[in-house]
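hi!! sorry for the late reply, been swamped w classes. u asked for the two structures so here they r. pasted raw, havent cleaned anything up. first the sequence of the first protein and right below it the tokens
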Amino acid sequence: MVRRRGLDDRPIPAHPYRDTALVYGGMASVLVIVAALTGGSVLRAMAAAAFFFLLATAWSWSKFRTRIRQREAASAAAAAQQARGGAANGKTNGKASGLASGNGRGSAES
């Protein structure tokens, strides 16, 4: 999996699901309006807009759900580490992590 820089570092909106539905609903509405203004088939435009709305909304909701779960898991792991007296107290159980003691790429090579 290729991770693009900074994508997972973005803040999650306060209402990601509602906001996504509103944005894609607006885009679907614009599609129908443009079809009506240009003399196109409004029925076909409504079908295409509904398909677009459902597909795009489902995709975005899936991505938000994944990001929220990943952040919750990372927060829980950090809280568990801190509760065990880990990195916050300078204890590492005798193991050095690759990122903390290496070149930033997960290995200790220079």
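now the second protein. again sequence first, tokens right under
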Amino acid sequence: MPVSPAVSRTLTLVATAVLAFDGAAIAGLGYMTGRMVLVPVGLVFFLSSGLILLYRRWQSRRLDDIMAARRALGEEAREIQRLLSKK
């Protein structure tokens, strides 16, 4: 069962926000407590949230391309049916 685009977009934004907050919190906590190993870990989490948004945008463009190709294929198939029915 396909998920609606609005639900998918909302879930992506919520996941990105949670990951960005966790990354910022880990980095900040690591800095404040002097545990410098947590700072790069938090930064990686924070930056990966941006990568999720970039991937979502890329995926959305690919899905749009696929839908356009499907529409074109359907139009072509209808045109072929129309030409065959004339004979």
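hope this helps!! also noticed smth abt the second:
DSSP finds two helices and no strands in the chain.
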